[in-house]
Design goal:
It comes from Aquibium pacificus. This is Uroporphyrinogen-III synthase. Keywords: Lyase. By secondary structure, the protein is α/β, with parallel strands linked by helices. It has two domains: 113 residues, Rossmann fold; 114 residues, 3-Layer(aba) Sandwich (Rossmann fold). Helices cover 36% and strands 24% of the residues. It contains eleven helices and eleven strands. Strand 1, helix 1 and strand 2 form a beta-alpha-beta unit.
Length: 236
């Protein structure tokens, strides 16, 4: 079995590590980011036609009393993990795209009437594709930042994590994390510890964040969820 470096933030990192160990792998937990909840001002529910989110973190960090005011709205998500988080937050009508944020925007445009008003539960750090797609489809996108993400661990944490030996596989969950890894690999010691590792990414967009440093060793899942990502673990 493999030594697998998990770069996603907590609490997801520990959940992923537990899954890996159950499969017989050795998990190295090295979160390259930290998520903190914000205290946003949400619009009146009567001004919203539907809710959307592209990350499960939006629902994990949404206060229950805030979620309660929107639970009767249709909720559109990307991937099974985000859909599950929406259901756990109390949303009953959850519709999920198994592709990416652009595909989710296309689903909304195809499903809802023109000029619908979409409450987009999101993070401060995000890509523009969803908002652009919704607005290009003639709808109003109202982004509300539910959480913020800071990146890069202390150097001591990196050294400690690698002390038992280099990983065989690196799991990468976001484009920004991929960019952090790319920057970290500009340091010879860190690059050396990853010289033989395979990089398994949640999507092609995430893989692009690594640049050309790991060409020939980068793979991405067909669907942006952890089930599809784990399916790559057995890939030679």
């Amino acid at each position: 079995m493999a030594r697998v470096l998990v770069t996603r933030p907590e609490p997801g990192a520990s959940v992923t590590a537990k899954r890996l160990r159950a499969l017989g792998h050795e998990a190295i937990v090295l979160p390259l980011s930290e998520i903190r909840a914000l205290d946003p001002v949400l619009p009146d529910p009567s001004a919203i036609d539907a809710v959307a989110a592209t990350s499960a973190s939006a629902f994990r960090h949404l206060k229950p009393e805030c979620a309660a005011t929107f639970r009767q709205k249709a909720c559109f998500t990307v991937g099974a993990r985000t859909a599950q988080a929406a259901g756990q937050a109390g949303f009953a009508d959850v519709r999920s795209s198994d592709a990416d944020a652009s595909a989710l925007a296309a689903m909304l445009v195809a499903t809802l009437p023109a000029k619908s008003r979409i409450l987009y539960l999101c993070g401060c750090v995000r890509r523009p594709e969803f908002e652009a797609g919704v607005e290009a489809g003639g709808m109003l996108c109202l982004p509300v930042e539910i959480y913020d993400t800071t990146f890069s661990p202390p150097e001591a944490t990196v050294t400690e994590s690698m002390s038992a030996g280099p990983p065989d596989i690196v799991l990468v969950y976001s484009a920004r994390t991929a960019e952090v890894l790319r920057d970290m690999m500009s340091h010879p010691d860190f690059a050396s510890s990853l010289r033989n590792a395979r990089f398994l990414c949640l999507s092609e967009a995430v893989a692009r964040g690594l640049g050309t440093l790991v060409e020939g060793r980068t793979y991405w899942s067909d669907e942006p969820d952890e089930e599809a990502l784990f399916a790559l673990l057995s890939r030679p």
